[in-house]
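C-alpha cells for chain A. Residues wanted.
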C-alpha cells in the first residue's frame, strides 16, 4: 500500500513537472498580410506541437514601425513579451539596456556558430552572447512584374538598367496601366530609394553614402544622379499611392493594374499566398543595375528576460525551433525569403529563391552584399528615421529641388 502511494506521489510529481515545462510564449510581430500570416502560423504550429501556448501579439503595420512603438511601451512598463521581431542595430540597442535574455545555452547546443553566416551571427550577438535568433534572409533589391501586363505593353524581358526601365515604364503608361505600384510609408519610399542608389552608384557607393553616411558621398554627383532617377520613378506611380500599404501595391501587380513593384521578397510571399506562379504569372529580377549586389534584411526575434521558469523554457524552445531545419524550410517557402541556416537544401524553393540564395553567397565574396537601410539593418534607428523622413519629403514634394533633397538627406544623416 505504502509502495503504491509512493508511486502515485512520484507519478503526480512527474506529471506536474512536465506540465510546468509547458510555458506560454508571447510573440510580438508585424506579420499580418496574407503571406506573412501564413508564415508565422508555421511557427505557432511548431510551438504548439511542443506543448507550449502561443500568445500572438501582432501589431499591424508593414516594416514594423508600429510594432516598435508598442514594444517600447511594454518593456518600459516592465512587462516585455517573450520574443519580439526586431533586427539589426536595434538588437544592440535593446541589449545595451540589459533587458535581453542570454541564448548561449540554446545556441551552443544547436551549434549556431557553425550554422550561421558570420555577418548574421554578429548581428544576433551582444558582447559575444546570442540575444536574438534569425529566421531568414530577405533580399530587398528586387523588382517584381506582372508578365501579362508587360506583354500587353510590348515590353520584352525585365529591364536590366535604369535606362531600359524608363523605356519599359513609358510603354506601360502608354498602354493605359500604372507602371509602378507604390505605397505610402517612408520605409516603402526608402526601399525604392536604396535600390536606385545601389543601381546608380554600385555597392561601394551605397556603403559609403547610406551605411557609413560619409558626407562626401552623400553630397556627391552620384547622389544627385540617384535623386534625379528616384524622382523620375515617382512619375510612374499613381496619384492614389500615398497611405497605401505595401501588400495592396503588390495586389495591384497581381490584378494586372500595374506592371512593376520595387519591394523585398516578402512580396513574393503575397504572390504565392494568392496562388500565383513565379516565372509565369509574376516575374522577379534584381532592380535595374543591381544584379551583382544584394541588400540583405534578416528577420530575427530578440528574446526578453523573463522571470517564470516555464516561460523561460518555452523561450529556449522557440529559439531552437527558429533555427531548426523544419521551420527554416516551411517558413521561408511561405515568406518569400531564403533560409538563414547554411547548407540547407533549396530543392523545394522556386527560381527566385534559388537566384537569391546563389547571389547571397556570391555577393558575400565580391563585396556586393550590403545591409538594407530601409529595413533597419545598417544604421542606428535615430539616423535611419531622419534620413527616411528626408527621402520621403523629397519623394512627396516635387517643389523640393534635387539640390535641396541632397542637402536635406546629408543633414539628416548627421542625426545622433
Ligand atoms: C520585414 C519583413 C516584412 C516586411 C513588410 C520588413 O521590414 O523584414 O519580414 O514582411 O517588412 O512588413
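Reply:
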Amino acid at each position: 500500500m505504502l509502495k503504491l502511494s509512493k508511486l502515485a506521489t512520484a507519478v503526480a510529481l512527474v506529471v506536474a513537472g512536465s506540465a510546468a515545462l509547458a510555458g506560454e510564449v508571447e510573440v510580438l510581430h508585424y506579420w499580418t498580410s496574407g503571406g506573412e500570416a501564413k508564415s508565422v502560423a508555421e511557427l505557432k504550429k511548431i510551438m504548439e506541437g511542443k506543448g507550449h501556448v502561443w500568445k500572438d501579439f501582432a501589431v499591424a503595420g508593414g516594416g514594423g514601425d508600429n510594432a516598435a512603438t508598442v514594444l517600447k511601451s511594454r518593456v518600459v512598463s516592465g512587462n516585455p513579451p517573450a520574443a519580439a521581431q526586431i533586427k539589426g542595430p536595434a538588437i544592440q540597442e535593446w541589449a545595451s539596456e540589459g533587458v535581453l535574455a542570454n541564448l548561449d545555452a540554446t545556441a551552443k547546443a544547436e551549434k549556431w556558430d557553425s550554422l550561421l553566416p558570420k555577418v548574421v551571427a554578429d548581428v544576433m550577438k551582444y558582447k559575444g552572447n546570442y540575444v536574438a535568433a534569425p529566421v531568414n534572409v530577405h533580399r530587398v533589391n528586387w523588382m517584381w512584374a506582372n508578365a501579362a501586363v508587360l506583354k500587353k505593353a510590348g515590353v520584352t524581358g525585365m529591364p536590366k538598367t535604369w535606362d531600359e526601365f524608363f523605356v519599359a515604364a513609358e510603354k506601360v503608361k502608354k498602354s493605359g496601366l500604372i507602371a509602378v505600384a507604390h505605397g505610402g510609408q517612408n520605409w516603402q519610399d526608402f526601399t525604392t530609394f536604396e535600390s536606385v542608389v545601389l543601381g546608380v552608384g554600385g555597392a561601394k557607393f551605397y556603403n559609403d553614402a547610406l551605411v557609413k553616411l560619409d558626407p562626401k558621398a552623400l553630397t556627391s554627383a552620384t547622389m544627385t544622379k540617384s535623386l534625379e532617377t528616384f524622382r523620375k520613378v515617382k512619375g510612374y506611380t499613381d496619384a492614389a499611392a500615398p497611405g497605401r500599404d505595401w501588400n495592396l501595391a503588390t495586389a495591384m501587380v497581381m490584378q494586372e493594374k500595374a506592371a512593376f513593384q520595387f519591394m523585398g521578397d516578402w512580396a513574393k510571399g503575397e504572390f504565392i499566398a494568392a496562388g500565383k506562379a513565379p516565372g509565369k504569372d509574376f516575374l522577379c529580377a534584381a532592380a535595374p543595375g543591381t544584379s551583382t549586389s544584394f541588400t540583405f534584411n534578416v528577420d530575427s526575434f530578440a528574446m526578453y528576460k523573463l522571470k517564470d521558469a516555464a516561460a523561460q523554457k518555452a523561450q529556449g524552445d522557440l529559439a531552437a525551433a527558429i533555427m531548426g531545419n523544419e521551420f527554416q524550410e516551411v517558413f521561408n517557402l511561405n515568406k518569400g525569403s531564403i533560409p538563414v541556416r547554411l547548407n540547407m537544401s533549396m530543392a523545394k524553393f522556386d527560381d527566385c529563391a534559388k537566384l537569391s540564395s546563389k547571389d547571397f553567397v556570391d555577393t558575400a565574396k565580391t563585396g556586393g552584399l550590403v545591409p538594407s537601410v530601409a529595413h533597419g539593418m545598417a544604421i542606428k534607428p535615430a539616423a535611419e528615421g531622419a534620413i527616411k523622413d528626408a527621402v520621403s519629403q523629397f519623394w512627396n514634394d516635387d517643389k523640393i529641388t534635387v539640390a535641396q533633397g541632397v542637402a536635406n538627406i546629408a543633414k539628416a544623416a548627421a542625426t545622433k
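The two ends are 73 Å apart (CA to CA). Residues 30, 36, 62-64, 138, 246, 266, 297, 299, 375 surround beta-D-glucopyranose (CB under 6 Å).
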